[in-house]
Write a structure and sequence with these properties.
Helix content: 25-40%
CATH class: Alpha Beta
Structural class: alpha+beta
Low-confidence stretches: 1-23
Number of domains: 1
Number of strands: 9
Strand order of the largest sheet: 2-1-5-4-3-7-8
Radius of gyration: 19 Å
Shape: globular
Amino acid sequence: MKRAFFPLPALLLFLVMGSGHAFSRSASLDESAPDFTLTASNGKQYSLSDFKGKWVVLEWVNFQCPFVRKHYGSGNMPSLQKEYTGKGVVWLSICSSCPGSEGYFEGNDLQSEIKDHDSHATAYLIDAEGTVGRMYQAKTTPHMFVISPQGVLVYAGGIDNIASTNRSDITRATNYVRQVLDEGMSGKEITVKASRPYGCSVKYK
């Protein structure tokens, strides 16, 4: 029986086309966070690699989700964004909702949503294809990730430890994002690197 023979360039092309993700990888704790490039609400493109040497927070967002509204309506998320971007942290809000689904906005509607929710994120990034969301295995809105200045993923999980839509729970909850940033930025060992995310499911394509 004859074996099929592919010249090397053709074989490489076959592998890439056949898998669709031959050279991509998923994010894993304590490993280098995979790079990505997305377009922001202001039309500019941002890459994770642009922020090498800085602490970076990734926040999966859907302004129509009641769990997200809890943290924005109470001022919790905007105040966190403002506080830590003021300390040099890069905060990237990412929306992986596909067009036509809950949480997807564009144009003037998107600008209005960002303004109405008083976002102080460094950028609001649009991931309509869900490529980056799946890369980071984002499951809920919100779902939070923290990346160290060395580019290592040091936290993945919920914003805090009380899974509810009740704003009154915020003050008695342990805010994991704040805890991770405070510990990491002061050179301490990070005590909680992973937790269960809670919220609405990400509305992938």
